[in-house]
Amino acid sequence: xNISVQQEDFDxxxxxxxxxxxxVGAIASFVGVVRDTGGDAAVSGMTLEHYPGMTEKALxxxxxxxxxxxxxxxxxxxHRIGRLAPADRIVLVAVSSAHRAAAFAxxxxxxxxxxxxxxxxxxxxxxxxxxxxxxxxxxxxxxERWC
Length: 147
What we know:
alpha+beta, Aldehyde Oxidoreductase, domain 3
């Protein structure tokens, strides 16, 4: 398990390559980026805030639960904070396992739970000003299916 909350950008290819080992048969990954649309208005930027210490603990708990559910070889989770522009990378979830089913499921589980259970706050900047992004019902429903 390797978890980072950071301001710096990351190289998804390099991060995924670090998960490749002799006993790995599959690596599944997800990279989230800042969209330039936020409902009715264009988004010119996003600021991500978190609760230091608490955020890393929540992420570690999510990853530990994934490791308990599926036979995983490795997990790399990166979530950025600070000011980001449209098309900037926000998050990487990469999971390695001996088989693809476990890698796919664990990757999706971690991302679904991260969206609802990790203490991050997003503020979008639009031509009309700044606004906090509220949690979506679809994110809650995606996370609940794993209960």
